[in-house]
Specification:
single chain, 375 residues, mainly alpha, Ferritin, 3 domains, 82% helix, 0% strand
């Protein structure tokens, strides 16, 4: 009869052997002494876990397999030695994040206190991956991130794209019903309905997105608080590893961790900010503010092709609608250049062509449908 516990122990042992080999390879390839020491400490802890599962197998009288890394781990180690730690670090960090809960439901591991350590290792690797992508030095990374943040314009990007969505979707809708040769009042009502439906949909989607993020962050903070209370020594070591990963000398990192762990509030805030990249004071921003802004931005773009139908109809209204929409699309394309750094004329005309193509397609479909219904 197959003993499922023995198979589970073997799988756990193999995973730990793979982790030990990977961390040691990362330590050998890492040029920064402080970060290399972090990898070596992670390898030491994983070796202790591997020994734990070896003892479990020995207690069952099961043969203990040799400590040979799997083929995937060997491939990653080859990449580390060939191209450096930064190349595979995102892969390893992602895999650790996926596997961090593997011991949560295993009673032997829970009794030995393994789950918090695995969670800690996953978060430390996430931090290192976030702070040191592609093996960049801390100073180079800071300069790069500073430039990206200065030119990224997330708020501007959201504003431009929100207005663009409303404009392109509603000019397509208006041209579609105009192609069907409906009455001006019908086109106006259709355009306003499209504006309202699209704005509400965008607002609801934004509200759900931000609110879900807030709830996720709050749950992660709660888990971190519980781990800090239940396993203070593991969290103290995690704080030390965080500071070591940032390049702080060992003695200073240890002193900082010792001081912080004596102040649970400060320790929790540090862990939340550094590990989870969450600002406890913000928690993802206000869902209602995000929803309102999304509604207004979409509506701002969507009202443009509808405006002529308040005053006139027929081909004149359609032509004015297309003209206003083309001007607005060009302005949006020009606004995008603030983010992309590309030429204003090129980006503006590209945006106009995209909107014109969408409007032409819906106009043609509307005309075909209108002719078919009339016939």
């Amino acid at each position: 009869m197959r003993d499922e516990s023995i198979e589970r122990y073997r799988a756990n042992l193999q995973a730990e052997v793979d982790s030990v080999a990977l961390y040691r390879a990362l330590a050998e390839a890492e040029p920064t002494a402080e970060l290399a020491e972090v990898y070596r400490r992670l390898a030491t802890v994983e070796e202790q876990h591997a020994e734990f599962w070896r003892r479990r197998l020995a207690e069952r009288g099961a043969p203990i397999p040799p400590p040979r890394p799997g083929w995937r781990t060997r491939a990653l180690i080859w990449l580390v030695r060939r191209f450096g730690a930064g190349v595979v670090l995102p892969i390893i960090a992602t895999q650790e994040r996926l596997d961090e809960g593997k011991y949560d439901q295993q009673p032997e591991a829970v009794e030995a206190g393994l789950p918090p350590v695995e969670h800690s290792h996953a978060r430390v690797l996430q931090l290192i991956s976030r702070e040191r992508p592609a093996g960049l030095s801390g100073g180079a990374l800071a300069r790069l991130e500073g430039r990206h943040r200065a030119t990224g314009g997330n708020a501007l990007r959201a504003a431009v794209l929100g207005a663009n969505d409303g404009l392109v979707s509603n000019v397509s809708l208006v041209m579609g019903v105009a192609g069907a040769d409906l009455a001006p009042r019908t086109i106006l009502v259709t355009g306003l309905a499209g504006l309202l439906a699209g704005s509400l949909s965008m607002a609801l989607g934004e509200w759900l997105s931000v609110q879900s993020a807030r709830e996720l962050y709050a749950h992660q903070i709660l888990i971190e608080r519980e781990e800090l209370l239940a396993f203070p020594e593991e969290e103290r070591e995690e704080l030390e590893l965080i500071y070591r990963a940032k390049g702080i000398p060992p003695d200073q990192a240890r002193a900082l961790a010792d001081r912080l762990i004596q102040e649970p509030g400060s320790a929790l805030e540090t862990l939340v900010r550094e590990e989870l990249a969450i600002d406890p004071e913000e928690l993802g921003g206000s869902a209602w503010e995000a929803a309102t802004m999304s509604f207004l931005l979409f509506a701002t773009g969507a009202i443009v092709p509808v405006i002529p139908y308040f005053f006139t109809g027929g081909l004149l209204a359609a032509g004015v609608s297309l003209g206003l929409s083309a001007l607005a699309l060009f302005a949006i394309g020009a606004g995008i250049t603030v983010i992309t750094g590309k030429g204003v004329l090129r980006s503006g005309l590209r945006q106009v062509l995209i909107g014109a193509a969408a409007a032409a397609i819906t106009f043609g479909v509307g005309r075909l449908v209108g002719v078919a219904l009339a016939g």
